[in-house]
Amino acid sequence: MSKFSLQHKLIKIFSIALPSGANSLLDMANITVGMYFIADFSKEHMIALNVGMSYMMMLFAITAIFFIGTSAQVSRAYGAKDYQRLKSIMGNNFLITLFVSIPLLVVAFMGGELYLDWMGNGVSGETKLLGMEYLGIVVFGIPALMTKTICVAGLSALGDTKRIMYIKCITTTLNIILNYVFIFGFDFGIFTLDSLGIFGAGLCNVCITYLEALLLFGVIYMRKRVIGFSFVLRLEYSKTTFSVGIPAGIERFLTLFSLVLTQKFMSDYGADVIAGFQIGSKVEAFILAFGFGFQVAAMALVGQSLGRKRMDLAYDFLHTLLLYASIMMGILGLMICVFGVELSRIFNTQEAVLRASLYYLIAVGFSQVPLVIIFCLDGALRGVGATKLSLMINAMSIWLLRIIPMYIFVFYEADVRFVFGMIFVETYLRALIFWIIFKSRVWEKFIKRF
Question: Cα–Cα distance between 214 and 183 in angstroms, integer?
């Protein structure tokens, strides 16, 4: 059986990874625009916006169920050229997410204040009120977020990340305009829109999410020959979606909750440290976008290879992915270490905040190579439906090797650099575990057949 040439493999990898990375980059740009505008109000506004976004990020545990469950099935069906089955999977999962989104919206709306109270001293008083104002509107974008997930999953599984990128470019441009108009207000001549502040940032988020969902639906509808929606509920596809997706959703929840806990740990060190950590996280997110792009490429290409019954091709793509992703992310990691202060200064100029941000960026910058190894190998596991193995590795490593040691350092009031150091150490240990699992081929025993 023939293999692809290096040039062909790189074209396929980067044609998926780069647009997908650009999509994530534009997502970060959308968040950063809101942060940049809100920073003009006060530090309390910026913290409230970040904490509110962290709350909404918990929803990604739910979207992960449908994204991974849909992507794994669609990539397999596409590899086998079973287009009718592909459309049935898309239609079934679109309807399910629509049904799930309504009660989810109600729960998210009711739980916002409890979450802000739980965050502790760093999020109280005016910051809490601002956070409630933001969450009071942004949760209404949940139905669009859920259905959009199915569209993105389907197109990504086909390797068609360019169309997603084109849509993201349109919505990002509109997001910048609407953020400015809603946050600061604008005189249109015939009427004047008053400044809506942090509420305006939430309103903009809702409008853009619905627009993006509508455009993605339209793109899929126009590609009827290969992908589309057959709106009939099928128990078979629902069971597979949940059996593959729920472990991924649990993993995403535990990972996101660990990030929320980390933010809570930072709040125990005061407003300067939590602000520095949030800024450092945003700077890191810009390069992580490309890491996520490589993960999407691994999911799609390994899943499609399995659909063709070509395990040798899956390994071939993985070896190439790991080499070139490591080189690219290693360079980007060094760059955020060297230019960390300058990049952080975009968001804040206080020395204490910049110092905390730099400490964080050094820890994550020097661990980008093992992190992208984790992304690629984890993406391969998701692409073949081996999400239970992914859950075991990620959950045990993050909670036992990162969160517990971090909690001990915070409890004993150790220097914040020790807390950031645990992120560095745990990333290398987890990458080693993934490498052993793949090198020994143990992961093949967890491949899901459907």
Answer: 24
